[in-house]
What does this fold into?
Amino acid sequence: MRIPTVTSLAVATLIAFGCSKTPEDKLIGEWKGTDSGGQTATQGASVGSMSSILQSVKDKYKLGAIIFSADKNGVPLFRTAIGNSTVGEPATTDMHFRIGAVGWQYLTELMLLMVEQGQLSLTDPVSKWYPNYPGANLAPVRMLAASSTGFGEYITPPVFLNEVGADPFRVWSADDLITRSLPPYQTPQFTNLGQNWEYSHTPFVMLGAILEKVSGKPYATLLKEMILDPLKFSDTRLQFDANPQLPVLHTLTEDTFQDSTFWNPSWVSWAALTSNVCELAAWNRAFGAGTLLSSNSQKEVTSQVNVGLGSNTSQAYFGLGTIVFAPWIVQRASYWGMQTSTAYDPTTGISIVVTVSLTPQTPVNVAAVTEIISKVSEVLTPDHPVPM
It folds into this structure.
């Protein structure tokens, strides 16, 4: 299943922690796993393997920097940053970065929390808020989070991406983007709603706008009140401006290699979130374990609503706002010279998160974070790694 998305370590017993939570170079956790040969793997050996993977992938694809974290049940196993953010500035675990499509997980969580509060229903027709949008009467709210509406993908037309590139500081509203999903800008991906599937940013943009309409509050306020404050997050925020949180991981665009660090990412709408590796790891666990949700709501996240539609199979499918490679709950993002990925295994409590920055020497269309997640999972859960 292909889901488009919005891109030298010393092996020792001292492991960088970072994120200003504890001093650097603290031994992290006590963990023993089983390697592929059935032998007990000590933490040091596992850290050595993960270190080697990070350095190997960085060298192979000529990446700028890698920021990485692996933990088990909230106890960090290995957390580090390698490479440079920009010339003369080493990457650190304190740095903030764009998390892209991980934002759809936040969006889905907000939707399910509001459903629990009785503010809306998963079966409410989208036409309740968008009566004139083609096909909205046939699309329930659930289909927005499942990306199965077939609504036109506003990002696809080259003219849109050209506009973004021509004015990377422009603020794009949800209405701007929804309009760009309709003719003459774009046509539906498919018209047999409920009988097909294709990834699209448009239904997620519409879902966030609906949550604003239902609550009467800005999305950023909903995010803060219902998720960020309960989880005591202070390093995650919605960025609809050109002022990312500092310190920031610098990024270069894949095509022209311009510095995109301070551009405005509002064109990816509610996915324009930034975070650091510590809070992203905490979010990965919270979303994967359903910390804020009832058990029934959490089941919706991995519901096989899309299995049998498009490229979705029971082994690899898009649930609600996330990818599922059972048992792993995964998300992947890539745009403006960064790649970010998360993976959580509910059966072991293993969480892996990584972000990388690219350089002009990085090969085109490389999925570096996908490779890192997969290879690290082979170390931590060798009997069921995350597929490439």
User: Anything to note?
Assistant: The radius of gyration is 20 Å. The chain has one domain: 33-380.
